[in-house]
Write a sequence for this structure.
């Protein structure tokens, strides 16, 4: 059985992951609106990945005999200055999520909840990858900002992203 504090915190994280999905879907829509379908594709896959994260948390909470309680998802930002602005916002968001995951790990420590701590380690590792991959795109966008056609070349690269299937490890 999971403690009420841990249950509440995981419910908040489910909401945060669903907001992340909503934010990335908004970013995808922005990219579609400025004719960058490769970046839009990248963000659509990111949307799916965030929903997968939410569902992993959902499943874990149910497995621990907790109660999932869904809340309203806040409206995401819908407009940005350019592709770099979008990815800088995405990186800042991932850094915020890393903080949320770290807070969950700290709570699991405080609650002496070894099952939650073991489960959450996957998310800690995932956030390292999330920040690194987003930052790599930020750096590429900075490199090509003064290169005519550079964003369009990156758009073609972003279109090549394939969906990754998370491991079954908890």
């Amino acid at each position: 059985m999971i403690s009420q504090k841990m249950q509440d915190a995981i419910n908040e994280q489910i909401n945060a992951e669903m907001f992340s999905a909503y934010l990335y879907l908004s970013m995808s829509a922005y990219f579609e609106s400025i004719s960058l379908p490769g970046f839009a594709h990248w963000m659509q896959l990111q949307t799916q990945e965030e929903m997968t994260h939410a569902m992993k948390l959902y499943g874990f909470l149910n497995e621990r005999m907790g109660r999932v309680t869904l809340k309203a998802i806040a409206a995401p930002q819908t407009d940005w200055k350019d592709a770099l602005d979008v990815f800088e916002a995405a990186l800042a968001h991932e850094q915020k999520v890393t903080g949320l995951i770290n807070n969950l790990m700290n709570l699991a420590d405080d609650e002496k909840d070894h099952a939650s701590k073991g489960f959450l380690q996957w998310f800690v590792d995932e956030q390292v990858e999330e920040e690194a991959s987003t930052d790599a795109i930020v750096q590429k966008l900075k490199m090509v900002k003064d290169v005519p056609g550079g964003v369009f070349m990156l758009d073609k690269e972003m279109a090549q992203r394939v969906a990754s299937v998370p491991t079954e490890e908890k």
About this structure: The first helix runs from residue 4 to 33. The chain has five helices and no strands. The mean pLDDT is 96. The helical segments are 4-33, 37-63, 83-110, 114-144, 150-158.
